[in-house]
Amino acid sequence: MMDQIGRVVALQGDYAVVEVERNRACAKCGICHMGRTDKMFLEVKNVLGADVGKRVLIEMGKSSVLMAGSIVYLLPLLGLIAGVGLAYLVNAFYPLPGSPDWWGIGAGFALFVLTLAGIRLSEPAFRRNPRFYPAMVRIVEDFEEITDYCGREEHE
Length: 156
Hints:
Layout: E1 2-12, E2 15-21, H1 24-29, E3 39-45, E4 55-60, H2 62-93, H3 100-128, E5 135-140
Antiparallel strand pairs: 1-2, 1-4, 2-3, 4-5
Helix pairs in contact: 2-3
């Protein structure tokens, strides 16, 4: 599990905006580093009825994180490799004018871009899938010291 402790900073209907600090696992990932701050804001369904200022434990399944990373990073790489391979395969049966290396680079780049476009066009479907959303699992009391979440300790 990818667990994170954060503080509720705002309520928006049935959702809570939770401020969390990036930890070591986040620093190595880089998938959501939009700014240069150590803070991230997550919109999470407020199933626990947490109030502004409360600390909460946010959880996202490890398989969901790995699946999202695979979609974003692995699929475009596979598209690139497939494009290069496809160009050489086509060149073996139907010789292309010019260097097959340039055709490979062009086809690889084209499939890379098409894969990224496909992921971007599929984004609404991923947004509707609750599997890819973090979940609020419990309210953490201010006196609690949590040491077993995503590989680091928190002292507040």
